[in-house]
Amino acid sequence: MIPPKPMSRDGRVGLLGYARRFRTDILSAQPARLYGAWMAEFRTPFFRSYMMNDPDLIELVLKSRPEDFPKSNRIREGLAPLLGRSVFVTNGAEWRRQRRIIDPAFAGGRLREAFPGMRDAAAAMIARVRDGEQEVEELASYAAADVIFRTLFSVPIEDSLAAEVFQKFRNYQRTQPLLNIAALIPLPHWLPRFHKRRTLGAARSIRAAITALVERRAGEIAAGTAPGDLATKIMTFPDPETGQRFSPEEMVDQVAIFFLAGHETSASAMAWALYLLATHPDAQDRVAVEAVRDWETIMFSDLSKMPFTRDVFRETLRLYPPVPMMVRETTRAEVFRKRDAPKGAQIVLSPWHLHRHTRMWNDPDGFDPDRWGTEATKESARKAYIPFSAGPRVCTGAGFAMAEGVLLLGCLVGAFRIDPVGAPPVPVAHLTVRSKDGIRLRLTRRVV
């Protein structure tokens, strides 16, 4: 069974038609030819855009000369109400300073220190789930948010402030597309950014709740009672070059992106992984075999004993990369595949198209976790697999996300049989790749 894929648009459309489709869903707004093209140029009266699938160009932009291709400020336009100046949207010296403070919290053995929080969230998930038909995007969102709160602030999602952040983020998630009209058309700084009133209100509410969490932790740090979790590490670690720490406002920006990147993206991947296993029962059975273990005492090192589950999660990230597109900008005139690109041109890197590229992958639209053990896939993965980006700006939480995905997926499939319900879901891009109408599956507790 071929997993669901959004219909590509037919023929050419004008700028306004493209913008309308783009705002509704950036995946179905694109033409089918991009799945086989090395590069595509898009010209408007306002800017030029170059979508790149050529591995050499991706290497150039993300690894060889990343400083020459910073993140486009136009992408920040859509996310600024929630993320402020978080590490996700900044560039240059500001971004480097932020990473110098954040990266040590995720380095070395820090992931092992955070693992008990993940394990407790997995156990709480199993305790909550009941037999019967479920909307698994909601289930996955709740579980992934619980992981973030337990590892970041050492509180379960039932904590009043944590619950408030989660509920308000649910209101925000489907009101705000990944990119708004300002990503397409350069606007003067004084012009309104066309955010929905509901989006702005939800962002303010989320940031107010996050501020309360940060202030509570700051008080615990001052009193010497703070746990040694990720929030404490990040709030107390000084920049090794300047000795400065994050201000309270900066910490709110960072927590906002930790929640977005660590909860929204993980929930997206987990929900699609559950759907793929529900529609591929043989693969589900193999995950269930690996999941026969004592989940209450599982250690971080035990995840290495679940290689097929890990490959299922890798394959899910290939087919349904949570962040489907990344945008950079040229800082000077460039030549790409013998085409002149002016300063200020947009560079679009699309994991969605790259991971399904017809020249880079065998059976690109098929679900095949076993492909990850082949030499052909090793080469494809090296050149055409960037679910966490690559180079200096690779997601600092990539290892965290992989551990969380394997743990939650194995734990749930070990406890429940999963079967599909109704029509296949339709992928669309909101803040991440989600289903247009949710993903409904039937869960039946396994008999031990």
Brief rundown of the structure:
48% of the residues lie in helices and 10% in strands. It has helices at residues 15-24, 55-64, 73-83, 92-106, 110-128, 136-152, 160-173, 197-223, 230-236, 248-278, 281-290, 307-319, 351-354, 375-384, 398-415, and strands at residues 39-43, 48-52, 132-135, 326-329, 334-336, 339-341, 346-349, 416-420, 427-429, 433-435, 440-445.
Radius of gyration: 21 Å
Oligomeric state of shown chains = single chain
The stretches of 5 or more residues where confidence is low (pLDDT under 50) are 187-193
| Major β-sheet profile | 4 strands, mixed
Percent helix, as a range, is 40-55%
How many helix segments? 15
- End-to-end gap: 29 Å
Order of helices and strands: HEEHHHHEHHHHHHHEEEEHHHEEEE
